[in-house]
Hints:
Structural class: mainly alpha
Radius of gyration: 14 Å
Low-confidence stretches: none
Amino acid sequence: MTIPEIKQLIKDGCTAQALEFLEKHLNANPNDDEAWLLLGNAHRKQENWKDAMDAYTKATELNPDSPARDAYEHIVQILNFYDIQRFNV
């Protein structure tokens, strides 16, 4: 499966299938920063924040200009959001 096909799977919400293909791809191509970015995107869609952040970190290590850096920061903002009104019930 190609990277564009994996992107489409993620876009279509087929994240489990995309994760399967990405694992195989990354076993053969561990330095593919775009695949690490996509792995992070698939995990993010599943709200698996830790694995998404780990994948984004790896993508950024391989390519400091990767959009994974912004994606990582976006997750940090999500996790830092705290609505005190929701907890004063």
